[in-house]
Description:
The chain has about 350 residues and is an alpha/beta fold. It has one domain: P-loop containing nucleotide triphosphate hydrolases (Rossmann fold). It has helices at about 55-65, 90-100, 110, 120-130, 135-145, 155, 165-180, 195-215, 225-230, 250-255, 260-265, 305-310, 330-340; strands at about 15-25, 30-40, 45-50, 70-80, 85, 100-105, 185-190, 215-220, 235-240, 240-245, 315-320, 320-325. The strands form two sheets. The chain has an eight-stranded mixed beta sheet with strand order 6-7-8-3-9-10-12-11, sandwiched between helices. A four-stranded antiparallel beta sheet has the order 2-1-4-5, covered by helices on one side.
Amino acid sequence: MIGVSFMRPNPLLAVNQLKTYFYLDQKKIAKAVDGVSFTVQPGETVAIVGESGSGKSITALSIMKLIEKPGEIVEGTITLNQQDLTNLSAKQMTKLRGNEIAMVFQEPMTALNPVFTIGNQLTETLRKHRSMTKQEAQLEAINLLKTVGISRADEIIHEYPHQLSGGMRQRVMIAMAISCHPKLLIADEPTTALDVTIQAQILDLMVEMKEELDMALLLITHDLGIVSEYADRVLVMYGGQIVEEAPTRELLRTTKHPYTKGLLESLPNLKEDVDRLGTIKGTVPPAYDLPTGCRFYTRCPFAMEKCKHSNPDLIEITNNHVVRCYLYEKEEMQSVESNT
Ligand SMILES: Nc1ncnc2c1ncn2[C@@H]1O[C@H](COP(=O)(O)OP(=O)(O)OP(=O)(O)O)[C@@H](O)[C@H]1O
Ligand SMILES: [Mg+2]
C-alpha cells in the first residue's frame, strides 16, 4: 500500500485523505492538514506527535468540525461509526459533539465559560444531551466531579472557573467531556499547561476514564515521553502530513523517519541505540510556504537530491509500519517481494 496510511477494518474513527486549508489571501493558502489518513479502533489510544505547527490541532478540530473561516475542509472524509461527518449539518454535528465525540483542550479557560459556575456548565450539558431534570443533573454533576477525583465536589459546583487551579480546571473539563459517555475522546495537549506531577495525574485519570467507559482516546502531544507511556499507536506529523505511523513499541524500537529520530533525540533516556543526530535545527515550515519536495528536506541530515524535488509517498515497510521517506524505498520493495 503506497500513499495512504493503514485503513483497518471496522474502525471507530476513519480519517481519509483529509485536507484542511486556510485561505489567507488570494495567493496565500495555508495547507495546515494536507492529505492525512488514519483510523482509531474502539478502545484504542492513538497519539499524534509533532512539533508546533505540524498540524495536530487542525486535524483534531477538523474531526470535531470546528474549523472556522478562512479555514475549510477541502477534501477527504471523516467517518465515526460508519457515519460520514463531512456531510452533517451544524445542528447534527452539535448533537454528535457531546454524545459521541468530546474534546479536551490545552487551556481549559478557553473552553469553560467564565461567567457560569462549574455546576451550571456541567448541568447544562447533562440536561441538553442526557435529558435530565435539574435535580438529576445536579446529582450527576457532583458524581462526575467525584469520578474525576474532585473531593470537594459539592462546593466546587458553586465556584467559577477562575477560582480553580489549572489541574482542577482540567479535571472539570474531563468531567464535562465524559459526561455523555462519548466513544471517542480527543485530548489536545491536555497537560502542557500543568506542572509535571499534575500532568501525570491528569493523564492517568484520562486512561482510567477511558477504560471505565470503554472510550477510544486520540491524544495529541509534542512529548514522546507521554506517547511511550500511554499510546498504543503513534502518528508522527510534519508539515501537515503523517511522516511515520506504527505501534508505539515498534516506532520507538525501529524508528525510521529522520524527523522521528530527531524527536527521540530530545529524550535521551527513552532510547539508547537511536542514531545520534543532535537536536533538529530549525522549525516546521509555515503551512503557507511548504517546500516543493520532502517537507522535512531543509532540516534533514540525510537529504538527497531527489528529496529536494519531490515529496515521498508513505511507504509500507512492514504490515504495521509506514514511513514517508526515500531512504526506505528499498525496504519497501523487499517487503513487497517477500509478500508475493
Ligand atoms: N486560523 C489559522 N489561520 C491560518 N493558519 C493557521 C490557522 N490555524 C492554524 N494555522 C496554521 O496551520 C498549521 C498547523 O497548525 P496547528 O495549530 O494544527 O499546529 P499544531 O501541530 O497543533 O501546533 P502546536 O503544537 O503549536 O499546538 C500552522 O502552520 C499554523 O500556522
Ligand atoms: Mg496545537
